[in-house]
Amino acid sequence: MTLKNPNMRIVTSIILSSLVLFIFCQCSSSEKKSNVNIKAVQSDTIHRDIPVTKRTASYRKVKKTVEDFIGLESLENGFNTEEFRIWFANSSSREQLIVLKNISGKWAAEFYLLTYNYDTATNKLQSINKEVERKKPISSWQSFIDNLFLLGVTKLPDMSKLDNYQIGFDGKTITVEFANKNTYRIYSYWEPKANQDKVPEAKKIELISELLERELSFKRL
Q1: Do the Cβ atoms of 189 and 174 come closer than 8 Å?
Q2: 3-state secondary structure 145-208
């Protein structure tokens, strides 16, 4: 089912599809009570490309909660060299995350399998179980990273900027974060397979996902 109501685009662009209900329930109170320090991440020279749907207090609060639970620092202040985080979310309580880091000219990869645990009465996120596995590309780091850049992983726009992108209420969402010393970007694509025949950008993010699966030996949920 596709949605023409632009307000629903906020839902479909969230990293955690499994937190949609939580955000709807908490959105109103979060806007009033959450005191996320937005000014702090805007006071330096980092260029940030963050879609409007990801600037809300409710979204930022959920994102920070997830990062805290799994022990990741925000990338919004940049990264000393280069880092990618590719989130594969769906409607279940499980999610996959690929973290790629370039440290002193050497790349490293970690694969996360995340399970979200909620309070059954309040639907509030209580904890996240994580399984982490180090990965190496099947071909070589040079070939793997070169192919990612050739597919435009650092340059693709968010789906909200594409007029002809069909967005539904439920399904799988891919979110990419990228940071270096000067830049932070985040963008999402809902069900790129459903859009790849008509939207070139959806085709590219699907090819990026397939490249990650093939090189790092995992299957998307």
Answers
A1: yes
A2: HHHHHHCCCCCCCCHHHCCCCCCECCCCEEEEEEEECCEEEEEEEECHHHHCCCCHHHHHHHHH
Q: pTM of the predicted model, to two decimals? A: 0.81
Whether the CB-CB separation of 51 and 187 falls below 8 Å is answered with yes
Nearest to 14 by CA among 190, 210, 195: 190
Task: Give the Cα-Cα-Cα angle 151, 92, 13 (nearest 5 degrees).
Answer: 45
Which residues make Cβ contacts (< 8 Å) with residue 17, sequence separation at least 6? 89, 90, 91, 170, 171, 172, 173
Neighbour tally for 114: CB within 10 Å: 22
Q: Which of 14-23, 52-61, 62-71, 111-120 shows the lowest per-residue confidence on average (mean pLDDT)? A: 14-23
Q: What are phi and psi of 51, to 5 degrees?
A: -60, 150
